[in-house]
Amino acid sequence: MPDLPPRPSSRLKRLGWRLYEEILQPSRLDEYRRLLQNARNAGYQVIDNPQWLAMLRAGQVNDQTKILVMRHDIDTDPRLSLDWHRIETELGCRASYYFRQSTLDEAVMKHLAGAGVHVSYHFEELAEYAKQNRLRSPAAVEAAMPEIHALFERNLQDLRQRFGLPMDVVCSHGDWMNRFLKMPNRVLTRDEALRARTGITSECYDDEAMKPFAVYLSDDDPPAYWARGNPFQLIEAGITPLGILTHPKLWRAHWPSNVRELTVRIREALQFKFGKGWK
Fold first, then answer.
1. What's the helix, strand, coil split of the chain in %, to 5?
2. pLDDT tens-place string over residues 173-210
3. Cα separation of 66 and 64, whole Å?
4. Cβ(251)–Cβ(27) under 8 Å?
5. What are the chain's domains?
């Protein structure tokens, strides 16, 4: 894979690349296959988040063991999960799949879970509560934290009952409202009492899970495609432990789900800018 190109600098270029990403981008599944195949050929174990935590807690992570932890945040297009899973199965790899309330697909999630895949919750109750209740300030959000905790607990319990899964290793979603408030959704899981009540054993951004990585990188918008490193080069260099995060919309232009997401964003932006009653 060639060196990553620079990010576009002009607004026009950014708009062009965004339209390409949303509508025209062809499937990159062949690249995903090559990525996993390269990792396997280089001697990496490709594992999910619970396996990673188990290895950490057992003291089995060291410089001699090549580990790649694969995570998929299903922000849009849940059916792409089946294609990723098919490739992973063929190559003897595992990954974690985190679904939002807006991407819950019962058939997809039950298929993955039935195959022994780690499926869990991509939560965003802090951001959603703030938008629904028109909270603009961190102080207003802090004052509403008991209600936000209760909403999270109800949603998590509903998902556990619906899918029969433990969902004890969860992952926070990042939303524009979190960036505005400067409060990530994972603020919720910093509450030890909430963890005890819900049986959460880990959140993906816990220090325990993140600090041991030599490099943790993510897919990114075109034309760069990757942020914080080139995974092909890192694998070739034998960097370990390595974490990779992916999102469906960056691997194919599934325009129906992309248009739905864009419509929601525009509506929320208009409500935020022109709506009344924000606190």
1. 50, 15, 35
2. 999 999 999 999 999 999 999 999 999 999 999 999 99
3. 6
4. yes
5. 24-274 (3.20.20)
